[in-house]
Amino acid sequence: MDVGSWLEEINLGGYRQIFKENGVNGEYLESMSVFTTEQILHFIRRHHMKWGDFITLCKELRRIKVACLKGEQRVRRPWWAPSCLSVVFVKAAKRNRQSRVVSLKLES
């Protein structure tokens, strides 16, 4: 799913164009979990985000990471890979699921 569609789904569609203009993709959003305070403030200023919207964005990103860790998130092949390799990518992603969410802190 592209970032713009996802933003619409989580009621942050107003940021769709500015994210697109600034090249914000899924990999970039995933890397936000290790941002420093300075990087977070820069992101908020650059994308003209309200604090509440930024918090919503972070909560939704965390929800996706938790779903991946639990095996509930659907795994897809990368856009650049030929469809004949779909099974290979899905199997590899399922085997490596935990390695993709190492920055996640589970709270009890």
Brief overview:
This protein is mostly helical. It is 55% helix and 0% strand. The protein has helices at 3-9, 16-21, 26-31, 37-46, 51-70, 86-95.
Features:
single chain; 108 residues; mainly alpha; 6 helices; disordered C terminus
Number of domains: 1
Low-confidence stretches: 98-108
Mean pLDDT: 76
Number of strands: 0
User: What is the alpha-carbon Rg in Å?
Assistant: 15 Å
**How far is it from the N-terminal to the C-terminal residue, by CA?**
30 Å
Helix content: 40-55%
- By secondary-structure content and strand pairing, the structural class works out as mainly alpha
Q: Per DSSP, what share of the residues sits in E-state strands of 2 or more residues? A: under 5%
**Count of alpha and pi helical runs:** 6
Biggest sheet record? none
Can you offer a commentary on this structure?
By secondary structure, the chain is an all-alpha fold. It has one domain. The protein is built from six helices and no strands. It has helices at 3-9, 16-21, 26-31, 37-46, 51-70, 86-95. The longest helix has 20 residues, at 51-70. The chain is globular and about 35 Å long. Residues 98-108 have low confidence and may be disordered.
Ordered list of secondary-structure elements with their pairings:
Layout: H1 3-9, H2 16-21, H3 26-31, H4 37-46, H5 51-70, H6 86-95
Domain SAM: 1-33
Protein name: Sterile alpha motif (SAM) domain-containing protein
